[in-house]
Amino acid sequence: MPASRLSSRLILIATLLITISCSKDIQNTDAVKQGVSDYLKETQAKTGLNLDAMQIEVRSVSFQRDEARANVYITPKGIPTGGMQLTYVLVRKGSKWVVRGRSESGANPHGAGGDMQQELPPGHPQTAPGSEQPGGALPPGHPPVGSKQ
Fold first, then answer.
1. Which of 5, 81, 98, 104 sits at 20 to 30 Å (Cα–Cα) from 61?
2. Which residue has the higher pLDDT, 122 or 45?
3. In whole angstroms, what is the distance from residue 39 CA to residue 34 CA?
4. N- to C-terminal Cα distance for the chain?
């Protein structure tokens, strides 16, 4: 095979590979989870959330053009209850999702409602009515009381 033909074929293959890699389909749960994880890492100093101790689960996601809306559940590793349910809005930036913000669902992020004493997860310190920091110090990885993420 002449060198010019081989060179032409290599250029064609390289062009195809670049085109395929640039048009990566990111409309999937794993790509959204990566975007949320990246966001939580970027805001870790502000939130005080210890990501090494947390499990992040994308429970549902919907896509509309270059936007995704994800229902995310964050729990301490090894503890099946007591997590936070958050809804994130993400936008497509190249080949990844970037969190634009949170969408308020009106639900308590800790999942409690009504009488909180009955809704606390197992092992959670008891709370005193009206106290700013229930039970004293917050557990490791817990964001400051009253903070907005």
1. 81
2. 45
3. 9
4. 62
